[in-house]
Amino acid sequence: MERGAVFAGLHSNHLLSPLSSRASASTLSPSPLADGRHFCPPLLKLPSQSHFASYSNKQHFSSSIHVASPTSNATSESADIDWDNLGFGFMPTDYMYVMKCSQGENFSEGQLLRFGNIELNPSAGILNYGQGLFEGLKAYRKHDRNILLFRPEENAMRLRMGAERMCMPSPTVEQFVEAVRETVLANEKWIPPPGKGSMYIRPLLMGSGAVLGLAPAPEYTFLIYVSPVGNYFKEGLAPINLVVETEMHRATPGGTGGVKTIGNYAAEGAFCVRRSKKWLLIHCESAEYGDSCSSFRSVRIAEISLGPSARLWLVLKAQSAAKAKGYSDVLYLDSVHKRFLEEVSSCNVFVVKGNVISTPAIKGTILPGITRKSIIDVARSQGFQVEERMVPVEELLDADEVFCTGTAVVISPVGSITYIGKRVSYGSSGVGLVSQQLYSALTRLQMGLTEDTMDWILELK
Predict the structure, then answer these.
(1) Which CATH number applies to 31-231?
(2) How far is it, in rounded angstroms, from Cα 443 to Cα 445?
């Protein structure tokens, strides 16, 4: 759930220097056929109960890694930040990690570079055809100053799954986790003190090579940058108010709704035009919510510098209309029956009734959230019956609680949902007991305040 992280422009002028690629052929990358066309591997078949295979830190990595930061004094100094007033937004740090790979090869050596702007050919695959993926995870600081990563291998496996779907080579799980580790330690001074927030980690995989015709890019860049962020809820959990969208849909069967591709977050949204060194953010202005877009207006003019994090925030048309009417976000239904719950704009949804917690099953149109997967396991360990199935929208009307899950918020309780004009509220405060219980359990685990019986935490010393 990323709704609070609006990225500001960058001011650094460092450019991304090319890296050499020294590796053999990759089975994940698309390869040219004899007639010049390109072969794209089929989508991975996912098991019904788990969206990736299980992965153990103890089997593949030491639970505690001792390493020196590239900045010699990183462990003794802290960034000059008012941690008590740190918001959930982008803040430039010191280093970013970059690794390149040519089509038909494997990712090999990467390196840390000073954080700054990157150069892309105007014909880059990411710019012309949206061939790109991103991930999001967090690092936390403990009171003993050790650093905790929460399930980074899950993000690595999800990126690999998305890369196969998008005809892209991808780093191995080990390469991904090592790159995250190096980036976090290089920027250690930017990690907030315990209880003040976390370090948000953003890996990107993009087609950076120039391609004019519709085909996979000839070169790919894997990049990681980080930013300190405050706690999403400063004063404890705060409920959100959702509206069910009945006409527009975030994903369709056979599409890319089940992978974290960049294009999923720009569909049916705003667009930007440049005018005299300034960018105008344009969005649809319709007479009624759900109408087709008949007119547009500019809503903001801002000078920006296209840095690695300056992905223009393209707010979904439905989300913009909902917020204009006072709702926090949109809950989407499936595109076939227009009856079963799918996702909120950028997070998974759960419905609570008694001791049963229900959530839409992963079936290709729903992103397999890592927080979602973790909440399911935590809930089952606490005695709840968790059902992953098709959830009819009518069940919202009789639910005890509803909550959403995502990296940024962990859990976001839902105070009310409006469906075809009917508003249903949950509890007097909007924060149910189950939501609070699961939020506390998972966040305490993420911050190292309880024992990690799940083998989910990778600790850096």
Answers:
(1) 3.30.470.10
(2) 5
HSE, side-chain direction, 13 A CA sphere, residue 266:
16
How does pLDDT run across 274-304, given as a tens digit for each residue? 444 444 444 333 333 333 333 334 434 333 3
Counted residue by residue, the chain has a size of 461
Beta bridge partners of 200: 138, 227
Please give the average per-residue pLDDT across 98-118, as a whole number.
Answer: 96
Which residue would you say has higher pLDDT here, 311 or 190? 190
Rounded CA-CA distance 90/93 in Å is 9
Q: Could you give the CA distance from residue 152 to residue 324 in angstroms, rounded to a whole number?
A: 36
Superfamily of domain 240-261+322-446: D-amino Acid Aminotransferase, subunit A, domain 2 (3.20.10.10)
Between CA 195 and CA 447 the distance in angstroms is 8
pLDDT greater than 90 at residue 122: yes
| Strand duo 457-460 + 147-150: pairing | antiparallel
Catalytic positions are 260
Task: Provide Rg for the chain, Cα atoms.
Answer: 22
SS3 labels along the chain: CCCCCCCCCCCCCCCCCCCCCCCCCCCCCCEECCCCCEECCCCCCCCCCCCCCCCCHHHHCCCEECCCCCCCCCCCCCCCCCHHHCCCCCCCCCEEEEEEEECCCCCCCEEEEECCCCCCCCCEHHHHHCCEEECCEEEEECCCCCEEEECHHHHHHHHHHHHHHCCCCCCCHHHHHHHHHHHHHHCHHHCCCCCCCEEEEEEEEEECCECCCCCCCCEEEEEEEEEEECCCCCCCCCCEEEEEECCCCCCCCCCCCCCCEHHHHCCCCCEEEEECCEEEEEEECCCCCCCCCCCEEEEEEECCCCCCCCCCCCCCHHHHHHHHCCCCEEEEECCCCCCEEEEECCEEEEEEECCEEEEECCCCCCCCCHHHHHHHHHHHHCCCEEEEECCEHHHHHHCCEEEEEECCCEEEEEEEEEECCEEEECCCCCCCHHHHHHHHHHHHHHCCCCCCCCCCEEEEC
Residue ranges covered by each domain of the chain: 31-231, 240-261+322-446, 270-313
- Domain 31-231 and domain 240-261+322-446, same fold? Reply is no
Cβ density class 258-276: b for 16+ within 10 Å, e for less: bbbbbbbbbbebbeeeeee
Can you give the pLDDT at residue 264? 81
Q: Determine the pLDDT at residue 336.
A: 94
| pLDDT over 60 at 305, yes or no | no
